[in-house]
Known about the structure:
Layout: E1 24-26, E2 43-53, H1 56-67, H2 72-86, E3 96-103, E4 108-114, E5 128-129, E6 132-133, H3 136-140, H4 151-162, H5 167-180, E7 182-183, H6 186-194, H7 196-199, H8 203-209, E8 221-223, H9 225-237, H10 240-243, H11 245-256, H12 275-279, E9 285-286, E10 289-293, E11 296-300, H13 307-320, H14 328-349, H15 360-363, H16 366-373, E12 412-420, E13 425-433, E14 483-487, E15 490-496, H17 502-515, H18 521-526, E16 530-531, E17 538-540, H19 547-550, E18 556-558, E19 566-570, E20 576-580, E21 589-595
Parallel strand pairs: 17-18
Antiparallel strand pairs: 1-8, 2-12, 2-20, 2-21, 3-4, 3-13, 4-9, 5-6, 7-8, 10-11, 11-14, 12-13, 14-15, 15-19, 16-17, 19-20
Amino acid sequence: MRSSRPTGSLVALVAAVALALGVGVAPASARPPHSGPGDKVPVATGYGGAVTTVDADATRVGLDVLRQGGNAVDAAVAAAATLGVTEPFSSGIGGGGFFVYYDAATGQVHTIDGRETAPMAMRSDSFVENGVSIPFADAVTSGLSVGVPGTPRTWATALEQWGSVDLRTALHGATEVARKGFVVDQTFADQTAANTARFSAFKSSAHLYLRHGAPPAVGSVFRNPDLAKTYDLLARNGVDALYTGKLADDIVETVQDPPAHKNSTLVVRPGLLELGDLASYQAPLRAPTLVSYRGLDVYGMAPPSSGGSTVGEALNILEASDLVGADPTQTLHHYLEASALAFADRNRYVGDPAFVDVPLAHLLSDGFAAERACLIDPAAALIKPVAPGVPDGDYTSCETAAVGTEGTDGQSTTHLTTADQWGNVVAYTLTIESLGGNGIVVPGRGFLLNNELTDFNFTDTQGGNDPNLPGPGKRPRSSMAPTIVLADGTPFLALGSPGGSTIITTVLQILVNRLDLGMDLPAAVAAPRATQRNTVAVQAEPGFDRTPLQALGHTFVDNPEIGAATAIEFLEDGALLAVAEPVRRGGGSAAVVQDR
């Protein structure tokens, strides 16, 4: 068996890449913030703790918390709050996420389900009008798509359970960034530009992000004093201030009566969210998923996320395929086939466990994996999409691969990974769903609302057995896959990625790259990606070598960018190897408390 620990030298990749009272942008010379686009370093090795995110300011704020004696949970909340300022189109207090935590004192892995919930007024046909689904674009930019935000409650729960600082302290750095500003990079400018049509339709969104009728210029300083005030409110009163009181009133009013310009051509439907939905929200602790792979224990997020179950099932299928010593083409062939098979089962069986009987133990069983793995032909790709298997406990035969249906999922998210001097580890994926969420800033509050309810299937896709239809209080299925890998009970890897349903394949491919193809972690993260989610064609980045896989029958279509991972590896000498993307999404930012 190939060693699960790194050998040889590690590759160090370096990326090539007076207080304002008004909202929006100012010249960079007005008061430069701590970090800028040139401060991103994607690989760092050292001791005392590590933080890796997509943003230099978020990494800096998280690292400051570690240097001041905070732990990995404190740093994760601080970094996440900063991403709500600097990466507001992918995360923020208007959204939700999943938090996976390794507790060094107990050796246990815990998770928090911070997924948004549907309003109690939502029904299975809430996205259907006149017998047909409403246009997806209409659902995205609407009040109808807004679920109860889970991110603030996730932060409070994490700090109460395992943190060492209070919320006020954890929010301090992010509040400073919101108030003083950050340097606009190309990614922020491009993402704002991509949302110009939507943001211009809403007075509050245009006021914040299109201050002069256009996206902020690269190199300018962007400030969000309204969000700073909102963070101050949460620091004073706790996150209950978002779920009850005047802020809750403002959220509900925005959802029920979106502040669209009268001359807007967008069809903006009002939402169903009510005050009682906010007041009753909880972010429960859930048992993590767990599979064994190459002698390692791989922990992930259980339903309503499909991340842990689908990554875990695919790993089980790969291990049943006995790839030890296989050449790279066969390894990648099996990776694509295992992904397709696991996605077929995900689409059929995974949903909110409060509403759906998810056969999780069977989906993650070695017997079911062996039954699915026997469908893989080393000489030829399966015809896609494939049908789901039958996780019923009877795994004595190899069924013929049948044709199934494809699934869909959202696209915009962010992921961060932290570790501290005591050995605690956090893998945290958070989101507001589409790039820019539902496009609506809560007036005077400085944050966008989510459109997570579009992760539900609008109509039954499974012939009466769809596990992911909308429902009152239901959590839509997610693909977020924050993952922690233990070797002999201690941390070896922690990782995750944004990217909608490509999150699952990104995490899976990085694990295959690292554990099966022998890459070191920076190379495993940087390598060109391909994603097979039980679709007719494989989506692949331009640099992915398709030729040998095409000879096996795989077909490909282009995807310019898949995922934007962050990860930490725990080296044998006690050092931490923190890794972010060198290029994707403008490159990420990795840092350690003390350099090696």
